[in-house]
Automatic annotation (TrEMBL):
Signal peptide stretch: none
Presence of the UniProt keyword Kinase in the record: yes
Record Pfam families: ROK (PF00480)
GO molecular function annotations of the record: kinase activity
Organism, scientific name: Micromonospora tulbaghiae
Family recorded in the similarity comment: Belongs to the ROK (NagC/XylR) family.
Protein name per its UniProtKB record: Sugar kinase of the NBD/HSP70 family, may contain an N-terminal HTH domain
InterPro entries listed in its UniProt record: ATPase_NBD (IPR043129), ROK (IPR000600), WH-like_DNA-bd_sf (IPR036388), WH_DNA-bd_sf (IPR036390)
Keywords: Kinase, Transferase
Recorded superkingdom: Bacteria
Gene3D superfamilies: 3.30.420.40, Winged helix-like DNA-binding domain superfamily/Winged helix DNA-binding domain
């Protein structure tokens, strides 16, 4: 199936401008691209014929000639997938990456990639059908794992047992008949924040993703930084102590083994059994198990043991951030993936450590904030990944 896409570098730039800033007038776009009128009109005509661009009505008059607005065509639709923390989230976005429809369901990633990837195909097919589309322009996938972006497969991911080197990108592309891009979830979330969230005004920021897998997306000089083998930002396995709790990666004392959801639940069960928390013990007795949502609920209700667990984890994360912040000197740190309710406690503790311990040059005016996009950041970012490929000249 031949993919429709921009044919020249100017067409590609025009599409990326429309994706990033929304509808704009022809006059403005011609100026931004630095193209003579006739040439600009020819590029727009071609994009219109391809269905990639359409008119969005008259632009507000700027005193001179009236201009019309252009936007990305209505047949450009991206699929976005975010896997992790027990959920499979699938969305459909328009060409500006605004989510149009979304479906979340529980998933057990231990069932293996064949099963989960098969379900992703089904759900994307369902969303596509409901939207009356015959095909998708492209699909982006965010996984809680280091991803070899070159071959679109996860590598040695404790949070995705049995997925090592599974060809997620190629399997999905063959099933769906459209381009697919796969990346790490923290990277996708950083892209989502940069496109539509708190990160939008900032060229240099860190996005720290909490949850079962902990990672960090780095936006440097306006672009996502992946490193030499797309492994940058894998902070979950920084070793904090040599004799700490066993981590899913096989080492001891990793950030994830102290601060990940599994660690919080493990400590909560210990506290409940040791009689240190009636709130946690009651929940454990009622359900036979605890989840990170129980820890969050108990902490929010004022349970001292649950609050201590959250603060301890936050303090450790804070110490990691001290190093990252002085190394990278970001304009802002955005934290996402904290269970509902404990964000403020977590944030206060992290801020305390970072502001006390970092150099004034690195943190003088650097805010540390919670993401307000939540997991939507990961879906927008997943769509962003593939849109960059779709909006590049063939
Ligand atoms: Zn580890």
């Amino acid at each position: 199936m031949p993919m429709v896409g921009p044919e020249t570098a100017d067409q590609a730039r025009l599409l990326r401008l429309l994706r990033d800033d929304g509808p704009r007038s022809r006059v403005e776009l011609a100026d931004l691209l630095g193209l003579p009128r006739a040439r600009f009109a020819a590029e727009v005509d071609r994009l219109t014929t391809l269905g990639l661009v359409e008119s969005a009505g008259p632009a507000a008059s700027r005193g001179g000639r009236r201009s019309s607005l252009l936007r990305v065509g209505a047949q450009v639709r991206f699929g976005a997938v975010l896997v992790g923390d027990g959920l499979l989230r699938v969305a459909l976005t328009d060409g500006e990456l605004n989510p149009l429809a979304r479906h979340d369901e529980p998933v057990d990633v231990r069932l293996g990639p064949d099963m989960v990837v098969g379900r992703i195909v089904e759900l994307l097919g369902k969303l596509r059908g409901e939207a009356g589309l015959s095909s998708l322009t492209g699909v982006g996938v965010a996984l809680p794992a280091p991803v070899e972006v070159r071959d679109g497969s996860p590598v040695s991911a404790p949070a995705l047992p049995g997925w090592h080197r599974f060809p997620v990108r190629d399997t999905l592309a063959a099933e769906l008949g459209c381009p697919v891009q796969v990346d790490n979830d923290a990277n996708a979330m950083a892209l989502g924040e940069r496109h539509a969230g708190t990160g939008r005004p900032f060229d240099d920021f860190l996005y720290v993703k909490l949850g079962e897998a902990i990672g960090c997306g780095l936006v440097l000089a306006g672009s996502l930084y992946r490193g030499a083998a797309s492994g940058a930002g894998d902070i979950g396995h920084f070793q904090l102590t040599e004799d700490g709790p066993l981590c899913g990666c096989g080492n001891n004392g990793c950030v994830e083994a102290y601060c990940g959801d599994v660690a919080l639940v493990r400590e909560a069960v210990t506290a409940a059994r040791a009689g240190r928390s009636t709130a946690l013990a009651d929940r454990l007795a009622a359900a036979g198990t605890l989840s990170v949502a129980d820890v969050a609920a108990a902490a929010t209700e004022g349970d001292a043991a649950a609050q201590t667990l959250v603060r301890d984890a936050a303090r450790r994360l804070g110490r990691v951030l001290v190093g990252l912040v002085s190394f990278v000197n970001p304009a802002i740190v955005i934290i996402g993936g904290a269970p509902a309710g404990i964000g403020p406690v977590l944030l206060a503790e992290i801020r305390g450590v970072v502001y006390r311990r970092s150099t004034p040059l690195a943190t003088g005016s650097m805010p540390i904030v919670l993401s307000d996009l939540g997991d939507t950041a990961g879906l927008i970012g997943a769509a962003h990944l593939v849109s960059t490929q779709s909006y590049a000249a063939r």
